Amino acid sequence: MLLDLLYLLSVLIIIYVFFGYLIILMLADLIIRKKIEPIKDIIMKKVLVVVTVHNEEKNIKNRLKNIFESDYPLDLLNVLIISDGSTDQTENIIRSSKFYNIELLSLEQQLGKSVAQNNLKNFIKDNEIIVFTDAESLFDKNCLKEIVKSFSNPKVGAVGAKLIFQSNSNDGISSSQDLYWNYELKLRSYETSLGILTSMSGACMSVRFDLFSELPSDVGEDCFIPLYVANMGYKVIQNDKALAYDKMKHTSLGELKTRIRMTKRNLKGTLMFHSLINPFKSFKYSFAIFSHKLLRWLSPLFLIFLSIAPFVFTGSFIFSLMPFKILIILIYICGLLGFLFNIYGFKVFFFSQVYSFILANIGFLLGITYFIFKSKKQTIY
Prior knowledge:
The structure is a single chain. The chain is of the alpha/beta class. The chain has a domain at 47-277: Alpha-Beta Complex (Spore Coat Polysaccharide Biosynthesis Protein SpsA, Chain A), CATH 3.90.550. 51% of the residues lie in helices and 15% in strands. It has twelve helices and eight strands. The protein has helices at residues 2-32, 60-68, 90-95, 113-117, 143-150, 172-194, 221-231, 252-271, 274-277, 283-312, 322-343, 349-373; strands at 47-53, 77-84, 102-107, 129-133, 138-139, 156-166, 204-208, 235-247. Strands 3-2-1-4-7-6-8-5 form an eight-stranded mixed beta sheet.
């Protein structure tokens, strides 16, 4: 009986993580959403765009061009490039740039992204907003203006752009990633509306200069900063009108490595903020963090139990039902077919989705494992 209840609970948790949480957010948004007053007085602020790079000679020239093509006053726009031990022509390209308001911080040795970014506090000067971005990312023309507009609300401490992934591939992995990311963006949009967002993307995120705090060496800015800002009592929001673009990793290995890296460092960063995950101190944030992050990262543990239990504990009523066992076998056969189709370049939507779901959960599981057993490591690019 107990095993039956645990099994049903595991099923409900998986359904909740990947479907139910979004439905709850949508209903809550309909019930308690407050009317947003239009911003009348928009004050343009001095902005420092920070790009941390390591051997980006192929991308840096286009990145700088894109930043300065933004519809934002040039006299209020400064760019800091932190070269983290680059050994190619990245730094020479930056030095030869025609744009005058660029500073280059050249680090002789590669320290890791977060450690390198901690040097920017010496370059903040009179800049009011810090915008983080990557060498491969691109801003929409109005992106910076929309981000700064959000800071007209004094309660807002950090703003993330709506990141759109672009891919030249039409394979199953890419389509599955696209579906997953659209779901993620919807969660962030509703969490913004409800005032419980604690997630941003490193490709385009911003923070008030006085809310920037030293980053742990093994936690990325996209994880640490929104949690830190929320913990300081300010709002973190996603501005859906501020668009940024990035390239999607469309190989299975690339997807797996991304999931492992992000799970490991984000789990470490999230657990640093005890007050946010304590429901007795901050119920709304703990509810969002458990639902959006922690339960998702733990989902492979529930899936392993769901997959193995019917074949091990045969004395239970649910586990003795043959349809459950057949269904589990069929799911993994679909995942295997999705894997094979991906190898040979075929795109079959359902099989690709099942394979990508299994792959993502393998990444979550390995990320948790590395977090528990691996030693501290610097954040990489």
